[in-house]
Amino acid sequence: MRIHTRTPCLIFISIMLLSCSRYTPSPVTTTRTKEMAAPVGSGNMEISILANVNAHRRSLGLSSLQMLDAANQQAYNHSKNMATGKAGFGHDGFAKRVSIIEQSLGKSSASAENVAYGSLSAKEAVNVWLNSPPHKKNMDGNYNLTGIGTYKNTRGVIYFTQIFIRR
Fold this sequence. Notes:
This protein is of the alpha+beta class. It has six helices and five strands, in the order αβαβααβααββ. It has helices spanning 8-14, 44-59, 69-83, 94-105, 122-130, 133-139, and strands at residues 16-22, 66-67, 110-118, 145-152, 158-166. The N and C termini lie far apart (37 Å).
């Protein structure tokens, strides 16, 4: 789906997004079957999202975010769970995701999460977040690490999760 300025109502109908921010004090093996959808690409979507987010951050004089494997895994798992109906769309389990990340990272001083779904490119997903004040606040926040995960369900809808961490 292409986003046009003439059709703002379609954005709200076809794209759902949520933002969560929280200041808070294991790799999963998957088996593919015909019924299961596959992750989007081989990380190209996630790399493109990071490049777009970091370009935005640099334009504001902010430091670039660095990928964190543990956060990538948790973001991917959450996107997959939302895409396959194992979790509702939203932030349920966010504190647990951060706790799992902290098991490998150590204590974090702040964390936040953006989620979205729709038929979007990486750039379109980032632009949707940039046009939403709570999502933009997370993207502009005082974070230094991130994890990004996407998953395309069997209907072709992509679920996006980006986790922000300050260590």
